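Team,

Forwarding the record for the chain on the shared tracking sheet. I've put the sequence and predicted structure together so nobody has to dig through attachments.
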Amino acid sequence: MRLRNKVTIITGAAHGIGKAYARRFAEEGAHVVIADIDAEAGQAAANALCAAGFSALARTSDVRSYASVDGLMRETVDRFGRVDVLLNNAAIYVTQRLWKGPVEDLALEEWDRVLDVNLKGVFLCCKAVIPIMKRQQGGKIINIASGTFFSGSGNMPHYTTAKGGIVALTRVLARQLGDWNINVNCMTPGSTMSEENITDDVRERREGSVSKRCIRRVETPADIVGTALFLASSDSDFITGQLLVVEGGGIARGR
């Protein structure tokens, strides 16, 4: 198993792709901490993993709050002794209420709401885990960006700005943390059929990306989790500051 006894925190792991990351990492031997603002769903996800014989812990966490994420890190260390992997997955996206439209019509409150979760939340989680990983002289931080960073598509200026900021933060942290053997990388899933309730609208939105890809099919969580596993494992020990695009060649085809 590639992550045997590795302590892994995954934010936003109660639903969607985050839940798929948690399952795959647990299958590879990790102690998985499911950090999610949805306490009930987080506990249900952890219970399901434990019932299947894996190691999992749910911890209600709000990535907008430094006190919350610092408590998450401390509780994880108290329970498992260390933090080997942090996967910053929590984000607001179109599966939730997300405004679309021209920049000049974007409400300031909406800008702050999305940036607080999608960019500041990543910063806060990194800030809280870095001292732990420095003491350990090692660790893996995996940040989740978006292909909208390349194309500016989607009419979501706040979402796209946040995801571009994640790429920049990844590269800064990689330079700052290399001396402690801490790898910081980033990946960009494409439009992924990760919803628990697939409506006609969801299906239409996900299928709309197929024609833009080299691999002409809908992306699923199974297409993504292997890349995250690679970045979390020792196979990527000499890779840092990089952005891996996991969306079937959409960038290669152009937008």
